[in-house]
Task: inverse folding
């Protein structure tokens, strides 16, 4: 009798077993979805933090490049001034008599 009952109810048992497998499989899929959703949220927060840090680094690099350009420009100007002074060296001309007399009067030492 048990074998007959089992054979008679085999389709019902198969459907019940299949339903149980589907419920367990669905539960695991739901758990996996929840885990992946939490992981996605964490990765999105990390990405936004990294993008903010990247923006800060790019701004710092831009400011640094501008500073280097200003320093390079200043060095170029000072190099030009130094070159001009070196070219002028030894090219002193005597003062005109009027300027010489004025300079003597201005820079004379007083007792």
Result:
């Amino acid at each position: 009798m048990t074998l007959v009952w089992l054979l008679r109810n085999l389709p019902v048992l198969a459907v019940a077993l299949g339903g149980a497998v589907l419920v367990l499989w669905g539960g695991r899929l739901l758990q996996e979805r929840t885990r992946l959703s939490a992981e996605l949220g964490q990765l999105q927060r990390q990405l936004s933090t990294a993008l903010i840090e990247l923006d800060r680094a790019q701004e710092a690099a831009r400011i640094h490049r501008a500073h280097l350009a200003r320093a390079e420009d200043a060095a170029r100007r000072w190099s030009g001034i130094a070159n001009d002074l070196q070219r002028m060296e030894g090219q002193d001309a005597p003062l005109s008599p009027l300027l010489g007399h004025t300079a003597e009067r201005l820079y004379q030492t007083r007792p």
